[in-house]
């Protein structure tokens, strides 16, 4: 089934979820790598790759939200206790960060005064005017939000493994659609 059910994840949601997992983990690693580099001709393509993947993640999260309006995902499994609400809050925070992080990267890159491009082909409009202060501010925010995302993604994964080990099928449901 493509659509989500009252307690099942449909194929569209599952594909977007796992594609995003791969992209976000790769993007976090690539981001840490480029933040440690002196930008130059030899590594400019890595910056380009990071920006292109970042716009891809932004498009996917917007697509995911749009899809979830059309086909609402099932709520987390289990009783409505503190763990349930913590899982919900973590999901919302991850969504918000996956929108805010690309926007802060886009703003920081705009502030350098260099054209921001997708796949070396399409130039996107600058979000802010070029200035060194703006560049430092937006990249600092980009850095802080990515650290927050790393912490939340870790908690999210540990939570999923814990629930799966307790036997409620939380992880199985995101792989196969149904909890059992
Ligand atoms: C969800 C999407 C994104 C994630 C997870 C992400 C992640 C990261 C991370 C972890 C860093 C290293 C931060 C640090 O240690 O200072 C970084 C740096 C960077 N990001 Fe992103 N990023 C994303 C989207 C974008 C986008 C859309 C752009 C630009 C259009 C961008 C431009 C940059 C640049 C230029 C740097 C290097 C900053 C510096 O040299 O200080 N990022 N990113």
UniProtKB/TrEMBL annotation:
Membrane-spanning intervals of the chain: 15-32, 44-69, 89-108
Pfam families, sorted: Ni_hydr_CYTB
Main location: membrane
Keyword Transmembrane helix (UniProt): yes
InterPro entries: Cyt_b561_bac/Ni-Hgenase (IPR011577), Cytochrome_b561_oxidase (IPR052168), Di-haem_cyt_TM (IPR016174)
Essential cofactor(s): heme b
Residue ranges constituting the Cytochrome b561 bacterial/Ni-hydrogenase domain according to the UniProt record: 9-177
Membrane topology: Multi-pass membrane protein
Keywords, in A-Z order: Cell membrane, Electron transport, Heme, Iron, Membrane, Metal-binding, Transmembrane, Transmembrane helix, Transport
Subcellular location per the Swiss-Prot or TrEMBL entry: Cell membrane
Family: Belongs to the cytochrome b561 family.
UniProt name for this protein: Cytochrome b
Organism: Rhodobacter calidifons
């Amino acid at each position: 089934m493509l659509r989500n059910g009252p307690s099942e994840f449909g194929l569209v949601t599952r594909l977007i979820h796992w594609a995003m997992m791969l992209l976000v983990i790769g993007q976090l690693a690539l981001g840490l790598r480029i933040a440690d580099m002196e930008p130059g001709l030899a590594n400019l393509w890595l910056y380009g790759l990071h920006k292109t993947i970042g716009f891809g993640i932004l498009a996917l999260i917007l697509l995911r939200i749009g899809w979830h309006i059309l086909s609402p995902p099932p709520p987390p499994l289990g009783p409505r206790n503190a763990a349930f609400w913590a899982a919900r809050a973590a999901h919302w925070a991850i969504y918000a960060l996956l929108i805010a992080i690309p926007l802060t990267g886009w703003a920081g890159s705009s502030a350098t005064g260099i054209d921001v491009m997708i796949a070396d082909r399409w130039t996107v409009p600058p979000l802010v005017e070029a200035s060194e202060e703006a560049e430092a501010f937006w990249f600092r925010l980009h850095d802080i939000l990515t650290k927050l995302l790393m912490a939340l993604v870790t908690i999210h994964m540990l939570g999923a493994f814990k629930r799966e080990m307790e036997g409620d099928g939380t992880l199985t449901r995101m792989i196969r659609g149904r909890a059992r």
